[in-house]
Inverse folding.
């Protein structure tokens, strides 16, 4: 049997948590998505589903830090190029609008009670990234904050709409509008 990488495991876990949320994710589904048996999954995550979820949220936080925040904060790269790269990464993490947001999926019921602080930290990280970009394109603090919040709302709302309508068009349009928002200032 081939060894399953940590990245494959985290992506498998994330796919189940995105689809089912914390309460809906069964250990059988989590094991199947990772390619591991339940015993092997518990060996890696002795804290069970809670530890698995925490690991996925840490993975997502690291991803946002490297692929969104670091990119949008790199003042050695022109702001339009930073935005383009960050939007490419955002499209990748959401499979061009085909995947729902992990934060949304985990923000219901038990997931929010257990992971509310991590979810809030992740959302604030997204907002901070886009506030930094807003300031780089010479927006005042209030406008940069407003743009960042609207960007987050646009991404999240378009993902819900894309899923509900079974088309990525709302997500694609939101990405275009975000680019326009920051380049037409």
């Amino acid at each position: 049997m081939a060894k399953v990488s940590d990245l494959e495991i985290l992506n498998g876990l994330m796919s189940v948590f995105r689809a089912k949320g914390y309460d809906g994710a069964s250990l059988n589904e989590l094991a199947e998505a990772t390619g591991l048996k339940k015993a092997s999954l518990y060996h890696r995550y002795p804290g069970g589903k809670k530890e698995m979820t925490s690991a996925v949220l840490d993975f997502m936080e690291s991803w946002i830090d490297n692929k969104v925040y670091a990119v949008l904060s790199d003042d050695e790269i022109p702001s339009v190029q930073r935005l383009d790269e960050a939007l490419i990464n955002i499209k990748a993490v959401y499979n061009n609008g085909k995947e729902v947001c992990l934060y949304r999926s985990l923000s219901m019921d038990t997931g929010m009670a257990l992971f509310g602080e991590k979810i809030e930290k992740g959302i604030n990280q997204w907002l901070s990234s886009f506030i930094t970009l807003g300031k780089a394109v010479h927006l005042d603090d209030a406008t940069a904050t407003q743009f960042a919040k609207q960007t987050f709302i646009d991404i999240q709302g378009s993902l819900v709409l894309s899923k509900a309508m079974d088309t990525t068009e709302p997500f694609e349009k939101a990405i275009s509008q975000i680019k326009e928002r920051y380049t037409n200032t």
Q: What stands out?
A: The chain has a mean pLDDT of 94. The two ends are 55 Å apart (CA to CA). The chain is about 80% helix and 0% strand.
